[in-house]
Amino acid sequence: MHVVPLIGLWDTPGGDQSDRRRRRAATLCCVLRRFIYLDRTALDQYVTALEGGRTTESTTRLMRTGTGTGGFDAKLISASGEKSREEEESRTLADTDEARFDRLLRAAEDEPEALGWVEVVQPDTDLDGIGLGAMLAWECDLYIPEIVQALARSGEALGAIGMMQNLLPMARRLGLDTEGLPNDEEMGAVSGFISGMDARLLVVGEDDETDWRVAGQLDEGSLHGDVEGRARVVGKVSKTVPLGRWKPYLTFPGMNLLPREERRRMERQSPAPGKENEYLAGPALMLDILAIYR
After folding, report:
1. Minimal CA–CA distance to 103: which of 115, 91, 90?
2. CB within 8 A of 283, min separation 6: which ones?
3. Contact 84, 65 (CB under 8 A)
4. How far apart are CA 212 and CA 287, in angstroms?
5. How far apart are CA 115 and CA 266, in angstroms?
6. Are the CB atoms for 231 and 207 separated by under 8 Å?
7. How far is CA 184 from each of CA 151, 180, 181, 189, 228, rounded to the nearest angstrom?
8. Gap between the Cα atoms of 247 and 237, Å rounded
9. Nearest CA to 106 among 117, 93, 94?
10. pTM of the full structure
């Protein structure tokens, strides 16, 4: 059992009420996270290594002390005095993924060098020369490349095909013009092809202030919402794509789309004109993504 003190965040001595409100807002901003993606298996491995084991619950204790008055009047005798009282409040909380992630961030804040942790503030400086296995946290703009949306099992194409398969019979019964649309057999073949490839979803992060990008694959079971948009991404560096090099999204590990020789050939070549959006352009870092949150 892990015992932690209950800290009175709002009753910090000194400072006026506005200072306390600002501290409160800062604390809530750091603590109240909405996870869009969280790899629980990786989080458990990191925190277990950091703490030397897994915490299953935590206990907080709060002691309150105070004084009260008491007295009596027996005709000619009148006396009063003070008595002390002491109260203890104890809470036992189950450990959660959110609490473990918070402890990981606090440890990274205290000892970033020991954990190989990089908080990206100036991308051109902070990302340059970062090593394999380093952890980074960066607020950036995230998007899923169109080719990945089309081919990944959890992308948009498979859902669109399923919707068309459901709507076409009704459209025909209503006498709507369906000429030129693929028939059921053709849509079934495309749907089976995408499902058979078992391609994983992939997200890319970038920012207007730098040419650097990050990219990483997502496990569908760890996804809790739409990752596209401005968010913070935390992950471990698995590979660097230098400036002037290109890595096709179809060659990422787990895509299972092309033979090995074809993947290597594509990585040695620059993209054909108009195909640049199918490649991750250097300078870039490939990540094993731990979390995406806002």
Report:
1. 115
2. 127, 128, 211, 212, 213, 240, 241, 242, 243
3. yes
4. 13
5. 35
6. no
7. 19, 12, 9, 9, 32
8. 15
9. 117
10. 0.67
Name the residue ranges covered by the structural domains of the chain.
99-145+199-294, 153-197
Q: Which residue has the higher pLDDT, 9 or 174?
A: 174
DSSP codes joined into one string, 37-51: EE-HHHHHHHHHHHH
54 close to 45: Cβ distance less than 8 angstroms: no
Answer for the pair 58, 98: CB distance below 8 angstroms, yes or no: no
Report how far Cα 37 is from the mean position of its chain's Cα atoms: 4
Band the pLDDT of 251: cuts 50, 70, 90.
confident
pLDDT in tens, 252-269: 766 656 677 776 777 777
Residue 137 · residue 233 · CB < 8 Å: yes
57-74 and 2-3: which strand pairing? parallel
pLDDT for position 53: 74
What is the signed CA dihedral for 157, 291, 216, 257, rounded to 10 degrees? -40
- H/E stretch holding 128 reads none
Cis omega before residue 123 (within 30°)? no
Tokens at 105, concatenated: 């961030």
In tens, the pLDDT along 178-197 reads 666 666 655 555 444 444 45
